[in-house]
Design brief:
heterodimer; A: about 350 residues; alpha/beta; Rossmann fold; six-stranded parallel beta sheet; 13 helices; 13 strands; globular; B: mainly alpha; about 75% helix
């Protein structure tokens, strides 16, 4: 019996892809005959990391496929037609509305994603969802099987690696560093992060910098609009890092004084936990799964009012007692996502499904 | 978890916002968003443009596969074989596309009728308003 973690696209530095690889590694270490299968693999991950999904005839009825569902793709239907046992791990599909006016193909992929996800609703015998938010979406899509909330497996030990020294030196120049990590896409609302930072810089602290870590080339019109917005506002020290090395990401987190998230849609939001790991206080807008992932830690904003966001940022950065409380709460919450705990949960469930 | 009174903090920040005279940006992101420009959507109904596009649509909706032509007998034979093979694969998709195109064009023709009736009604309303104005002036 093989267990195949299947995913349409294994992209570099992508939370869904990283989770698929982490689940595979966990199963392999537990002694299962586990492999990863993908339609497309980013060459930076190495050619041997996954088998191709071109020919799925190697999959037998006794095998289990854990399918990582997060977008519209031809592989979704092919997964549904497989003769084996099926598990879906649902990472959420971004609503197409966010991309109207930007990318027609992305809108189509999101619409197709929802249709295809609904079309698979009677196929799996079991499903995992990254969050209760994602679980409720699966239920709305018609999934009648048992659904278990299983957070994303984050290899926190990787974050102990050496950060990029050059970035560290550049960022530790006395400016207060506000950071947000995420692909530069409309649902992550980088414009609201910029608007809040602009007020913070103009009314509270001119000696500040905003660092937006993430690939800015996915939706060119959106990125161009953000740069135009920064220019029109006259905000200084706004850095779009682009898609950078892992060691550079570590350096930016280590240099950060505060993490600000104004995202409108998140199925889990790994960067929140990353910020917590690096002891960076989090301020985030309360939408989708954000509040659930923070679990009472960080500071949640009720909406995207930039003046309030700026005021809360300033309060945390100047009130040491408040900052300590926020960090204590974050350290407490982070324990719920300990690697060992999530792995144990995963293996318990797979064990019950396989009789091991 | 330690309790943090977020409501109280936000209340204090609201007072701070008023004291400092903090105003939200006069410039909204929507003001610089290039997405609308990328789409170049028209903002007003243009009767002439509608007529031109309808003439075009009614001429090009039928995307049925055409016979590949050639004067050379060998080329004609090869094209016939290719055509047969391609038709086997795509003919049902093409038929669906043609049916879809026909429905869309019929629907747009109907919408054009609706737009014309709308224009006539607008003119009627304009004339009635003019009459009322004259009556009120008497």
């Amino acid at each position: 019996m093989k267990i195949i973690n299947m995913i349409p696209i294994l992209a570099f530095g992508d939370a869904v892809g990283n989770d698929a690889l982490a689940v595979h590694k966990c199963l392999k270490e537990a002694g299962y005959d586990s492999i990863v299968a993908a339609d497309y693999v980013d060459e930076r991950l190495g050619a041997d990391i996954a088998v191709s999904t071109d020919d799925l005839s190697f999959i037998k009825p006794e095998d289990i496929v854990i399918y990582h569902l997060s977008t519209g793709n031809k592989l979704n239907a092919r997964f549904g037609a497989l003769p084996c046992r099926k598990i879906v791990k649902y990472h959420n599909i971004t609503p197409p509305d966010f991309f109207f006016g930007y990318e027609k193909e992305t809108v189509k992929a999101c619409i197709a994603g929802y249709k295809e996800a609904a079309g698979l609703s009677d196929k799996p015998e079991f499903a995992f969802a990254d969050s209760a938010y994602n679980k409720s979406e699966l239920i709305r899509l018609g999934y009648g099987c048992e659904i278990e909330v299983l957070p994303i497996l984050i290899p926190f030990e990787d974050y102990e690696k050496e950060p990029d020294r050059e970035v560290l030196e550049r960022m530790n120049d006395g400016l207060t560093n506000i950071i947000f990590t995420g692909r530069v896409v409309p649902n992550k609302k980088q414009e609201d992060v910029i608007a809040a930072f602009d007020i913070y810089q103009k009314y509270y602290n001119p000696e500040s910098r905003l660092i937006l870590v993430g690939n800015p080339h996915l939706i060119p019109a959106y990125y161009a609009s953000l740069k135009e917005y920064v220019k029109a506002l006259g905000t200084e020290n706004v850095v779009f890092t682009g898609h950078i090395t892992f060691s550079a990401i570590l350096a930016y987190y280590r240099s950060a004084d505060l993490f600000l998230c104004m995202s409108d849609h998140e199925g889990f939001c790994v960067p929140l936990l990353e910020a917590m790991f690096f002891d960076v206080p989090v301020v985030a807008k309360n939408t989708s799964a954000v509040g659930e992932t923070l679990g009472g830690s960080g500071i949640l904003l009720p909406d995207s009012e930039p003046g309030m966001a700026a005021g809360v940022m300033n309060r945390i950065l100047t009130d040491e007692a408040l900052r300590k409380k926020v960090l204590d709460n974050q350290r407490e919450r982070l324990k719920d996502f300990e690697n060992g705990r999530i792995k144990k949960q995963l293996l318990k469930r797979i064990g019950s499904l396989t009789g091991r | 978890m330690q309790e943090i009174n977020v409501d109280k903090i936000m209340e204090e920040i609201r007072e701070e916002i008023e004291e400092k005279g903090i105003k939200n940006q006069p410039l909204e992101f929507a003001d610089v968003n290039l997405a609308a420009d990328f789409l170049e959507l028209p903002e007003k109904y243009d009767k002439d443009m509608m007529h031109r596009e309808l003439v075009n649509l009614n001429g090009v909706w039928d995307t049925s596969l055409e016979e590949l032509q050639s004067n050379h007998p060998l080329k004609r034979a090869v094209k016939k074989v290719i055509q047969k093979a391609v038709r086997m694969v795509v003919s049902s998709h093409v038929a669906k596309q043609v049916a879809f195109n026909a429905s869309v064009v019929d629907s747009i023709n109907m919408l054009n009728c609706l737009a014309r009736e709308n224009e006539e009604l607008k003119e009627e309303v304009r004339q009635l308003k003019e009459q009322m104005k004259q009556l009120n002036e008497k």
